[in-house]
Amino acid sequence: MNSLSNEIIALLNKRQEVAFEVVFHLYYPRLVWFAQNYISVEDAKGLVQEAFITLWEKNPGVSNESQLQSYLYTTVKNNCLMFLRHKNVAKNFVQKAEIKIHEQLNAAALEQLDTSEIAFREMETIIEKTIAGLSPRCREVFVLSRMEGKKNKKIAEELNISVKAVEAQMTKALGILKMALKDFLPVLAWWLGISP
């Protein structure tokens, strides 16, 4: 799961723009996918950008990627909560009750979501164990796709199997991971390729 070097983390703590850009490009899409589970895409984009502004301005001094993940996801989570609460207060009373209930349920789900560093470490342990438990071919396909970012066609050529076989192995791997990581799905939606 970890994809940032210690050097990037150190440069980020020194407020180096190049490190900030690396972190932004890596985590922006993941955080938007996370936030849009609870609010609209456009609102999610704005709140995620605000989270990065907070990261830059407050410079919390993280020591590893798990701490950085925890900081970013917690900031976005809190931004979404404030947004939903404000929207709920400002909402016109004549709007449909079901919309209000849906937003209250989203707020309740966010409040219960654990975005602590410990949760990210637990999540990484589960991912490692689950991937290790996949069948050799299934694991090989999954690693090439999700860890190395290769397209299905390229994987098929590399492993000398059909694209359909690659798709079948990915479906199997994602199904197993979704079951193992059901408590972390909002955070992992981007990585697992789950539409919100």
Description:
The structure is a single chain. With 196 residues, the protein is mainly α. The longest helix has 26 residues, at 65-90. The chain has ten helices and no strands.
Compact summary:
This protein has 196 residues and is an all-alpha fold. It has helices at 6-13, 17-35, 41-58, 65-90, 97-112, 117-132, 136-147, 152-159, 163-180, 185-192. The longest helix has 26 residues, at 65-90.
Number of helical regions: 10
* Rounded Rg: 19 Å
CATH topology tier name of the largest domain: Rna Polymerase Sigma Factor, Chain: A
Biggest sheet architecture: none
CATH architecture of the largest domain: Orthogonal Bundle
Our count of domains comes out at 2
- Spans where pLDDT lies below 50 across 5 or more residues: none
Strand content: under 5%
The mean pLDDT is 82
Look at the helices and sheets and give the structural class. Answer: mainly alpha
Helix-strand string: HHHHHHHHHH
Helical fraction: over 70%
Number of strands: 0
Shape: globular
Distance between the termini: 21 Å
Q: Name the CATH class of the largest domain.
A: Mainly Alpha
Strands, helices and their partners?
Elements: H1 6-13, H2 17-35, H3 41-58, H4 65-90, H5 97-112, H6 117-132, H7 136-147, H8 152-159, H9 163-180, H10 185-192
Helix pairs in contact: 1-2, 2-3, 2-4, 2-10, 3-4, 4-5, 4-6, 6-9, 7-9, 8-9
